[in-house]
Design brief:
Elements lengths: L3 E7 L3 H12 L4 E4 L11 E2 L1 H8 L17 E2 L5 E2 L3 H8 L8 E3 L2 E6 L2 E4 L4 H6 L5 H16 L18 H7 L4 H11 L13 H17 L4 E4 L5 H12 L3 E3 L6 E4 L5 E6 L2 E10 L15 E16 L12 E5 L10 E7 L10 E8 L5 H4 L1 H5 L6 E12 L8 E3 L10 H15 L15
Parallel strand pairs: 1-2, 1-13, 2-10, 7-15, 13-19
Antiparallel strand pairs: 3-4, 5-9, 6-9, 7-8, 11-12, 12-13, 14-17, 14-18, 15-16, 16-17
Length: 449
């Protein structure tokens, strides 16, 4: 391993794989290493045996669940917003040709003890139990205002300044009830909590328009999902990197991150071999996350931890019209919490489990010392649970930007059930590593030999 690289990437989570693919396309010489023998790191999809081995080392899966190869269970469930930034990256890099997608059947919100579909058509909106008749009229005016907004045309602004007025002011202008604000802010703008209401309305406006345009694209819901599970995404970006000369090494223990006397990154040691590079990018687990470290390159973020329960069901989620897939958001104030609870459900339609089996994953940010109890409102919506695997993962963030030591560490995956925060992180790390904004240019499509 005498070669020197521009960048070494550690870990094959989605964030790292997107970055290594984009850096390779940008002409950088990239070496990508992972201690695991599979792609995906924390965002991998596991077969049935791997799933049971990860959570219960001595237990083999029940035979009635079917064949190992029928399963690809996501450790961290997330859906792709049809018109979102990840879709743009997939299209612009042409990674989309390695993947097949299927739509998620419905997006639901929990309110007053039951779940209701977030309307995807005007007809659904008219029938929706989420709002009374007069509230529907007010909401219609609110959405027409958002859809009609043109920055350059003050006559569309109705006296509102999106860059100065906060979202609370906008809601009040249209007289929207707290429950309506809830489902707009949490099920459409996809905020984790209510702190967005006191910030300028521009970002919320953009998020709601993204949601509604994604909904319009396919109809039933704004979300799409890759066949065979989310583990397909990192692999697809790994292929992109390889086409542009990136080198991959799986099952490679990382024994030491080597720095010089000034603390700047020099290289990585694996066993007797050392490989050098100008920069390193990696997930927090390669930089002392979970151990006590002297230099403290990562710390646990304030919210601390995410609790996730992977649940195997033998039936669709009650109240979803037997949907083969769904997202359900439980807004925090519906259950007296600070953070929303997310449920993501997929099935054999997405080639991730055997026929007549459904995989539902419930997650939220931990607020007490009894995490499993915190997701109880979500678990109760699932009906009878055949089996469940609960994990609590700390959320890590880097303590430095990496610009002084050339060590660029990514953030842990949050509790959201979509990829927009992951893509924000890609943009953030790209800017730190290259010193420039990530601009997605159309490129000539290269055909694999």
């Amino acid at each position: 391993m005498d070669e020197e690289y521009d960048v070494i990437v550690l870990g094959t989570g989605l964030t790292e794989c997107i970055l290594s693919g984009l850096l390779s396309v940008d002409g950088k010489k990239v070496l990508h290493m992972d201690r695991n023998d599979y792609y995906g790191g924390d965002s991998a999809s596991l077969n049935l045996t791997q799933l049971y081995r990860k959570f219960r080392q001595d237990q083999t899966p029940p035979a009635e669940l079917g064949r190992d190869r029928d399963y690809a269970v996501d450790l961290i469930p997330k859906f792709i917003i049809a018109s979102g930034e990840l879709t743009r990256i997939l299209v612009h890099t042409d990674v989309i040709r390695y993947l097949e997608f299927k739509q998620i059947s419905g997006s639901y919100v929990y309110r007053d003890g039951k779940i209701s579909k977030v309307p995807s058509t005007e007809m659904e909106a008219v029938k929706s139990p989420l709002m009374g008749l007069f509230e529907k009229r007010r909401a219609k005016k609110f959405f027409e205002f958002l859809q009609g907004w043109k920055d350059e045309d003050p006559s569309t602004h109705q006296g509102i300044n999106l860059d100065k007025d906060n979202m609370k002011t906008v809601y009040e202008k249209f007289g929207l009830e707290p429950g309506t604000q809830d489902f707009i802010g949490h099920a459409m703008a996809l905020y984790l909590d209510d702190s967005y209401k006191t910030k300028p309305a521009r970002e919320a406006y953009e998020r709601i328009v993204l949601y509604t345009s994604s909904m319009a694209r396919y109809g039933k819901s704004p979300y799409i999902y890759p066949l065979y599970g989310l583990g397909e995404l990192p692999q697809a970006f790994a292929r992109l990197s390889a086409i542009y000369g990136g080198t991959y090494m799986l099952d490679k223990p990382i024994d030491e991150i080597i720095t010089d006397a000034e603390g700047k990154f020099v290289g990585v040691r694996s066993g007797e071999e050392t490989v050098k590079a100008k920069q390193v990018i990696g997930d927090p687990s390669y930089f002392g996350a979970g151990q006590s470290t002297e230099d403290g390159k990562v710390r646990v973020v304030e919210e601390g931890k995410v609790v996730r329960a992977i649940c195997i069901l033998k039936h669709p989620i009650p109240g979803t019209d037997d949907a083969d897939s769904a997202q359900i958001i439980i807004p925090q104030n519906q259950v007296g919490r600070k953070n929303d609870i997310y449920i993501a459900m997929v099935s054999s339609t997405h080639n991730v489990c055997a026929k007549d089996v459904y995989i539902a994953i419930v997650s939220t940010i931990v607020e007490t010392d009894r995490p499993e109890q915190e997701i109880a409102p979500g678990l109760q919506l699932l009906g009878t649970i055949y089996d469940k695997f609960v994990s609590v993962s700390p959320l890590f963030t880097p303590t430095t930007t990496g610009e002084t030591d050339n060590i660029f560490i990514t953030r842990s995956y949050d509790a959201t059930s979509h990829f927009e925060t992951v893509v924000d992180e890609v943009h953030n790390v790209w800017k730190r590593v290259t010193g420039k904004d990530l601009v997605l240019k159309k490129r000539e499509v290269e055909v694999e030999a």
